[in-house]
Amino acid sequence: MFVLKRLLFVILVVWSASTITFFIPRISDINPIRERFAELARLGGFSAGELEKIVESYSKAFGLDKPLMQQYFDYIGGVMTLDFGVSLNKFPKTVLMLIAESLPWTIGLILVTTILSFVIGNLVGALAAWPLSPKWVRGISTSFILFQGVPPVLLAILLIFFVAFKLNILPIAGAYSIGTIPDFTFEFILDVLRHQILPGIALIFGSLGTWVLSMRGMGITIQGEDYVVFAEHKGLSSYTIFKDYYLRNALLPQVTAFALALGNVITSAIVVETIFGLPGLGFVLITAIRSNDFLVIYGIVLFITITVAVLMALVELLYPLLDPRVRQGQE
Amino acid sequence: MINYLKRNVSLTIGLGLLIFLILFTVHGLLTIEFKQAYPLAVRPKQPPSLKYLFGTDFFGRDLYTAMVVGVWQTAIIGLLAGAAGTIIGIVLGFISAYFSGLVDVLIKFICQILTPIPAFLIQVVIASSIDKRDVTIITMAIVVFLLSWMAPTLVIRSQVLSMRERQFVAVAKLSGMNSLEIIFKEIFPNLLPFIAAAFVAQVFQAVFASFYLAVIGLGPLREPLLGNTIWAAQSQSAFFNGWWWWPVGPSLAMILILGSLAMINMGLDEMANPRIRNKE
Amino acid sequence: MKISKLSIALLAVTTAFSMLTTSLFAGGHSLTKVPREQTLVLGWSITSPIGVTNPFASTGYTHQEANNLMWEGLSYFGIFNDEEIPWLADSMEYTKSDYTQLTIKLNAMAQWSDGTPVTSKDVVFTFESQKNNNKLPYHANFKQFVDKVTAVDDKTVVVDFKMPAPRFKFQVLTLKFDTGIPIVPAHVLSKVDNVNEYEGGNDMPHSGPYNLVLWDANQKIFDVNPDWWAVKAGRISMPEVKRVVMFNIGGQVGQGMDVVAQRVVNNEFDATLDMRSSVIGNILRQNSKVTTHSADKPPYGYLDWWPNSLWVNTQLEPYSDARVRRAMSLLINRELINEIIYEGAGIATIYPFPLYPGLEKFANSPAVKKLEAELQPGLYDPDQSAELMKAAGFTMNSDDMWEKDGKTVSAVINGFEGIHSDIVPILVEMLRNGGIDADINFGTDAYQNMADGKAGLYMFGHGASLKDPYTALELFHSRYSAALGTTAGSNRFSRYSNPEYDKLLDEMAPLGGDDPRFQELAAQALGIYWRDQIDIPVIQWLHRIPYNQTHWVNWPTIANPSLGMNGAFWAHTGMLVVSTLKSAK
Questions:
Q1: Structural domain total, chain B
Q2: Which of the residues in chain C have pLDDT under 70?
Q3: CB C352 within 8 A of CB C535
Q4: What is the least distance, in Å, from the CA of C17 to any CA of chain A?
Q5: H or E element: which one contains C42?
Q6: Cβ neighbours for B39, distance < 8 A, ≥ 6 positions apart
Q7: How far lies C385's CA from each of C426, C432, C534, in Å?
Q8: Is residue B279 part of a domain?
């Protein structure tokens, strides 16, 4: 029953996400097929004589001439059968193929940076609220919060220019070194990791502050709770209290927030990927947005929403395991 | 009051920065010539000097003027969107918590369903779909607040819920106050710290989101919004060409704005939570 | 601590997962190692989907992303030597003096990479496909001009035209810049159900010098074909570039050029997309081994065939009034543009065509010069502009904008961020200073607005003329001027309609470019273009491509024209550029 409720939740989230995203790109009447040709034309004159006829025949083939509501139902029907359609701008690639090809380059970066940011940020935030922490911890946490104002874009540009270009410590851009053949060797993996350091730093920096702030708030609330006071009276060491009572309880709501954060990090990733030339999901998305390749846009937004919703549902299913109070039927 | 500020360090820093920014902007608005924030106004590509405090850009804008106008426009977006989001949050949160029943379930349900949708992403999609001629400061504010009102709604709702059961409300009811009076005279004042915190958070989100949209080129391109300036600097390879002052100015301004808002948020958090007040 | 154990576990799982998926999509060919001195590294924003190598695949295919190294044409054109370079065909001659018949003789040794010879069957297949398949780019040209295509023997093809087609051979059958058609293998594509959906894949048989050995999200790698027919046929010596790596710099074409510039300076890239004026200068200053078409002197590049104008939809009010169009042109200060954006180089222009040798001669001819003095197309005169606006019925409103019937003159300039981010803001400001309500639109709907003829101005090029002004002037012929509410073809946004103009063009059509009568009519047509201000010419277009000479030399420059082709490795002629590079050692 509990599981069913969560499943229903996921389905509803996905449905509302797909409905919202369906109609938005249709506001503009840009045709992604025509945009592809425009892209080619821009570099110096691709002159298709009857561009319009080509565009028209493709539009018909994709059902773009049907009434909007009809297209909506066709689309929802397709999603149910996991058919996300083809990319109009990059025909004949399907949306799923595009996502699959670019996902590897994004997953590593996004997951690692979100996790690192989560871990470091929450730890610092928790310590900042713990009354026994030294003063300098509070200083660090304050500066992390201030860093929220540093735009990842600017940081990326600065890092590339100073660290990569001028100082030549780390590679400038790209997912791996030019001319390397991708292979499951240690060398290659190291190469890829080296290329992810700067983008990773750019992404983590600005997001630390959010975790610090929220965790600190949580931590402070918990401190006053009865069980902590009790533990103190029992004479448990500060370390034990910190670890088992304080941290563990404060972390629970944060995990839900983690799932949400994953969803939003992808948007920051768009710009960082573009600047560092990483051909990941963010790059595919921004290309789709610029050419109004709506099927790809829908596909990616849905993919992210499904991931986040499923993660959230999973976390809630795991709650009883982590928090005995919930097991007893509280919510 | 002063004592409290001394103890609540973050609030002090935050307010201090904010006041500095406000003074900067107000002084600026009174002394600049608006025209200079737009291209072809002054000599281009000049580094910072006495005449041009922040230098000039490739197109001939005076960057000091551009910054003042930019901060002002960013403030408008932040305040408008922040206020809109907060007001909706208050209204919906109240209605939901105080009147419970089907309305409550519905509102809570909608908020929960909409939360996992990547709002940021949707904003980018919306911003790129609207006709570029319609993109103005106002439309940006609208885009930015459209999917951000859920959080304040849920927060206010849970606070009102907890307050509804508290003693002072029961006492007020017994003494004969009607619902409206209870809302405004008893509950509302206790909610103020939370509302203030929610407002600051909303403003932060709004400024951050509008900055981000501008930086990828989706803002009203002619206006000297801070994000727009950075976008323009990037597209003209400012760093590589040695015009470092061009993106650095607006970035510093943005860091200060967002930083001050974050600090204030942190400070308000403490104010709202009495336990922290005692610890610090 | 439980938390840290958890996070370490998570980290490990994620890294492992991403590595696994990476290698899964790696393509896993066992490629030989080729040293850097034998590799050419090009930086480009690869936009076509992985695996699409079939020239007939729309919308995904483009020759620009090194696919030009696979597909060849009947002949190429070296613009700066003004010379045709015969290739798959030994000759293409008009065998009737009224230009209604063309005979093509293929080279005896022309061959596909799988050993099959290139024969007239391939040419016939290519031509007939273009004629019958309305999704192919040159379908309209073939449908309009070509009557029938006959294979006389294995190596000879005769094309009969419905009407005199003096420019067909050059425009359609010769590969230059980004125009012209390559020849495709009949034995491969005729077996395919739907040529537009067939991807082609890495191993599609082709006639060009390089084989595609790897294509993933980050790069395309090509290795030279040791059996390339052109070497055996004596056309060219074996290319010294053994491997070409086109590295995906991500982003939109034209974005993020400062990172690319840095990678040129540190010798990671040998050539890239063209740069903005200030950037190329800085590259040259920081790395003495980098050169350009014009060496280290402004304008640091060569003239491209795409001069830009501010186009308007001449059927839409208020742009339908020639006085308004002229008034806008009078607000453009072309000298100031040269000063601010091009560091003094004379790039601002008054012509709708590039100043290549043949066209420069035309522009300097006495007839044209006389018209220029009379009509003053490049004049900057805000006062005169104000007079014209008043005469057209506009009054200045309180915002210092011209207004009529409550509406200002909307001059939202639609353009493309990657290439117009420097010029458009300047133009906007110039127009605003003169009372025209201008603004920037680099949004995704920019091209759509141009095609739909929406209100506003369109910053776009005239990709047309190369030798004589006919094709450029023909852009304004009324047969392309679709009515309001329909979409215009690519490049034909003005929707200008003038029978006097049409008559001139129709008379010019069957004449050769050197015919004195042609020159006379062309001058008159250009005069009408200026007089009526069909669009507002702004700038010639430059390709400022950096050529890094650390590993490769013999790039085509003014001092070293090579075969006369332009140095853009992404154009059709890029194949010749790459094949003629010599090692720097």
A1: 1
A2: 1-30, 59, 251-255, 483-491
A3: yes
A4: 8
A5: strand C39-44
A6: B59, B60, B61, C425, C426, C428, C429
A7: 18, 12, 16
A8: no
Q: Which chains touch A (3 or more CB pairs under 8 A)?
A: B, C
- Residue A155 burial by Cβ neighbours in a 10 Å radius (0-12, 13-18, 19+): buried
> ipTM of this predicted complex?
0.75
Nearest CB to A49; choose among C20, C140, C255: C140
In this complex, which of C15, C144, C179 lies closest to A108 when CB atoms are compared?
C15
CA gap A169, A155 in Å, rounded: 16
User: Distance between CA C234 and CA C109 in Å, rounded?
Assistant: 10
Model pLDDT, residue A145: 77
Put simply, whether the predicted model's pTM sits higher than 0.95 gets the answer no
Contact between C430 and C332 (Cβ < 8 Å): yes
Q: What letter does residue C117 receive in the DSSP assignment?
A: B
What is the crossing angle of helices A281-291 and A294-322, to 10°? 140
Q: How far is the C-alpha of A284 from the C-alpha of C544, rounded, in Å? A: 28
Q: Are residues C266 and C63 in contact, defined by beta-carbon separation less than 8 angstroms? A: no
Cβ distance A246 to A221 under 8 Å?
Answer: no
Residue B83 belongs to some domain of the structure: yes
> Is residue B244 assigned to a domain?
yes
Q: Alpha carbon of B43 to those of B46, C174, C339, C422, C465: distances in Å?
A: 7, 47, 12, 16, 37
| Chain C CB within 8 Å of residue B30 CB | no
Domain with residue B53: its CATH number is: 1.10.3720.10
pLDDT in tens, chain B (280 residues): 666 666 677 788 888 889 998 998 899 888 888 888 888 888 888 888 888 888 888 888 889 999 999 999 989 999 999 999 999 988 888 888 777 788 888 888 888 888 878 787 788 888 877 766 677 888 888 888 888 888 888 888 888 777 777 766 677 777 776 766 666 777 777 778 788 888 988 898 888 888 888 887 788 878 888 888 888 888 888 878 888 888 888 888 888 888 888 888 877 777 766 655 554 4
**C177 and chain A in contact, CB less than 8 A:** yes
Pair of tokens at residue C157: 């093809």
- Answer whether residue B103 is part of any domain: yes
Q: Which domain holds residue B220?
A: 2-272
Peptide bond into C299 cis (omega under 30): yes
Write out the H or E segment, with its range, that includes residue A11: helix A2-23
CB contact under 8 A, B9 and A142: yes
How far does Cα C522 stand from its chain's mean position?
24
Strand partners, C459: C310
Which of C262, C421, C446 is opposite residue B240, by nearest beta carbon? C262
